[in-house]
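### Sample
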Amino acid sequence: MINWRNLNWDEIDNTETLWQKFKKQSNLWIIFYIIVIGLVAAISLIQVIYVAVDKAGYFDLQTEIYKKIAESNSNFPTGNISEYVQSDFIRNLTTNSFLTIFLFTLVVFFVISVFKAFKNRNFKYLNGLALMGMWFTAIYNIIVFFINIRNFFGFQGFSDYNVAIMMVVTNVILAVLYLLIIFFPGREVSKLRKMFIYFEGYVLRNRVIEENLKNMKMSGNFQEIFAPFFGANAQGANQTTTSSNTQTSEKPEKSEEYQRLSKLPLSQLHKIAAKLNIYGHEDIEKDELIEKIIQYSKK
């Protein structure tokens, strides 16, 4: 099982190190996941083809089911059973056909993303939409399975119909595969993707902040910390005219520092404040927080 939240991130220098650390484990989970979703798509296709080919058997089965419903419900319009069966056949075949196409689309997009991830040696490239789409499909079909479970096993004499046996067996197998998608390989593959996104989006970014804070304190150049967060033209964007009065020579510098900080989002300011050990920065308004960052950075 992949447990990346307890990793010692100080030992991970870059995405290549992270890739090598989880390469063997991740390969097994990804192969397992592709097999599972491939089986789901293939079995769904088998259901569609079988029902389409054995249309007569499906009609006989559904007719018998509707007759039993009519026997237990005196208000059921028995004269329209053939119409109900025809409508039910078209609806089920259409719905299952669209579901099968959707499943194969998800499989194709995910496999393409796997090739991209291996090419770049970075699992952040795994297709998040494909993972999410397969997860929601699994949830939906598990709910439908348990709603219809009485129909699968409650109809006496279903073993006389090949199409009924096929539907029961394949739906049970699909239910197991969908549970795997939700709780086992699907979950682990999602963890892999989140781990690399977290590393690049949080760990590496914090390292840049820490390094720039150290450089700022050592060099006294306050602007160095903000270079990664502004565009290439940001350094000269807020030039000020220096005063001839030596007593006010620091005011333009402070003004520029304040303006540059004010362009950062509040979440980034809180990260900088945390690195500077500013107590209670979470409750401080943006303007006051900027002043405190300027004050602490010059200590």
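Residues 256-298 form one domain. This sample (Rho termination factor N-terminal domain-containing protein) is used throughout the tutorial notebook.
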